[in-house]
Amino acid sequence: MLDYKYIIYIIIILLFVSCQKDQEKTSNSDFSDPVVKNNGQVIVLKNENGVFKTIVATKKALNSEYMAPATVVASILKPRLKEAHTIILFDDEELNQLYTEYLQSIAHYKRDSDYLQRVKDMYAHKAATGTELKQAETGLTDAATEMAEKEGQLRMRGFDPITMTDIPPGNIWLISNVPENIIGSLKNGKSCTVLFTSYPGEKFFGKITAVGDVLDKQTRTAKVRITLANPGERFKPGMFAKVKFPIEEENALSVPVSSVISVEGKKLCFCKGQEYYKAEGSHY
After folding, report:
1. How far apart are CA 116 and CA 110, in angstroms?
2. 83, 89, 95, 98 alpha-carbon torsion, rounded to 10°
3. Do residues 93 and 283 lie in contact, with contact meaning Cβ atoms separated by under 8 Å?
4. What values do phi and psi take at 166, rounded to 5?
5. How crowded is the C-beta side of 269, counted as CA atoms within 13 Å?
6. Which candidate, 253, 247, 254, 250, places its Cα nearest to that of 185?
7. Which of 42, 122, 147, 227 has the CB geometry, 3.0–4.6 Å to 105, for a possible disulfide?
8. Which pLDDT band holds residue 284 (cuts at 50, 70, 90)?
9. Dihedral class, residue 4 (left if φ above 0, else alpha if ψ from -120 to 50, else beta)
10. CB proximity list for 183: less than 8 A, separation 6 or greater
11. What is d(CA 227, CA 191) in angstroms, rounded to the nearest whole number?
């Protein structure tokens, strides 16, 4: 017959082993089964010593660069006639046509404006009827509407008509699409570095001359126009390039790249709470 003490020892050992297994199971479950909330936008992991190395994120001045692809969209050329507008040769035939129509609308508006002034003067001296005055006013309104329509179409394509005629010949324009989160760092007149596929190893320096008025709903990007000198006409409309935009933030919260993970196209950072680590998604 077995000794009762021996049986008790066996029971105690079995209970101890069972408790250890339950603790390991619970510990593994806590770590391997994170809590997912808000349709995957928030992930919560319980604190496990040794799993995460915690660092303190601080706000400080941030100086970096953002590189984006760009295309030479236009070359600015000198006209043969001094009275003529600056020639802008676009890489897109529709843009060429649109710019021509915009210049024509300016001419129409000036013509109708002068005509209205003459009719007003004639009407004051009883040399024109009220009907003629009304027709002249309507003509000027139509010309203004036409000009505004063409201007809006140009702005949609990333071109500010007001500044288009101020660019001297011998320059090119590049258009680059940049995300909305860095638009605030891009100011007119700010320098940027341009790298051309056609000229590997060479750096060129241009200036930001316009930031688009419209944000693309799908890509969340805006068009940025860069002006670059073109001595010897080395750069042609249609050429591809990359542009490095300097990014300066006075009081920016930054974390090391090693702290950022990508999940389904979103950037995540784990933040330490009182009893857990939480990862929240962002849109940058």
Report:
1. 10
2. 10
3. no
4. -90, -10
5. 17
6. 247
7. 147
8. very low
9. alpha
10. 211, 222
11. 10
Cα gap 162→248, rounded to integer Å: 28
Token pair for residue 100? 């021509």
75 bridge partner residues? 89, 172
Q: Which long-range contacts (CB under 8 A, 24 or more apart) does 179-187 make?
A: 179/220, 179/221, 179/284, 180/215, 180/220, 180/221, 180/222, 181/283, 181/284, 182/66, 182/245, 182/247, 183/211, 183/222, 185/245, 185/246, 185/247, 185/248, 185/249, 186/211, 186/224, 186/245
Strand order in the sheet with 276-282: 35-37, 42-46, 276-282, 266-272, 261-263
Q: Where are the domains of the chain?
A: 33-57+255-284, 62-86+167-251, 88-166
pLDDT in tens, 82-140: 766 778 889 888 988 998 999 899 999 999 999 999 999 999 998 999 999 999 999 99
- pLDDT tens for 137-152 read 999 999 999 999 999 9
Q: How far is CA 18 from CA 5, 11, 24, 53, in A?
A: 20, 11, 10, 32
Whether 120 contacts 129, CB under 8 Å = no
Is the CB of residue 173 less than 8 Å from the CB of residue 226?
yes
Q: Is residue 167 within 8 Å of residue 86, measured between CB atoms? A: yes
Q: How far apart are CA 64 and CA 30, in angstroms?
A: 39
What does the DSSP 8-state code read for residue 84?
S
Retrieve residue 192's tokens: 């940027």
Q: Which residues pair with 64 in a beta bridge?
A: 247
d(CA 246, CA 243): 10
Closest of 227, 85, 96 to residue 170, by C-alpha: 227
